[in-house]
């Protein structure tokens, strides 16, 4: 795997597969051909457009996750990260706007399967989960919150 391989205009394979957990535990986190194609789709159709909207870098906090890595971090058994169809992004790390404004931009302007306001407050999510599928995009909008130590997903409009 070449971590410097450009997957889209603004994303490299290294950014999409990096994981401190994988490194710490010796987990191979490398997408197969189809998963890489899915990463290209989500980056071209969502990430690159988000980056142009904020006019600067965005942090990909989670991209592709192998099933073993996904299980290790406690991800959903059906996580689209394992298919290469999902990204967790944060624009605040580099000071390029707010996650709330980016969330609204995605909701109002882009095709997506799921868009999740991840934790945070009523005014600002900690990060944004967005997925894209070449087959069918549900335009599902959710908010992740903790209740009694468990993550639940509430519908948003």
Short summary of the structure?
The chain has 157 residues and is α+β, with helices and mostly antiparallel strands. Helices cover 32% and strands 21% of the residues.
Description of the molecule:
With 157 residues, the chain is an alpha+beta fold. The protein has a single domain, classed as 2-Layer Sandwich (Muramoyl-pentapeptide Carboxypeptidase, domain 2), CATH 3.30.1380.10. It has five helices and six strands; from the N terminus they run αααβαβαββββ. It has helices spanning 13-17, 20-25, 33-54, 67-72, 99-109; strands at 59-62, 86-90, 114-118, 127-131, 140-147, 150-155. A hairpin with a 2-residue loop joins strand 5 (140-147) and strand 6. The longest helix has 22 residues, at 33-54. The mean pLDDT is 95.
**Strand/helix succession:** HHHEHEHEEEE
- Quick check: average pLDDT? 95
Main beta-sheet annotation = 6 strands, mixed
Cα radius of gyration in angstroms: 15 Å
Which term fits the overall shape? Answer: globular
Classify the fold: give the CATH topology: Muramoyl-pentapeptide Carboxypeptidase, domain 2
Unreliably modeled segments: none
Topology:
Layout: H1 13-17, H2 20-25, H3 33-54, E1 59-62, H4 67-72, E2 86-90, H5 99-109, E3 114-118, E4 127-131, E5 140-147, E6 150-155
Parallel strand pairs: 3-5
Antiparallel strand pairs: 1-2, 2-4, 3-4, 5-6
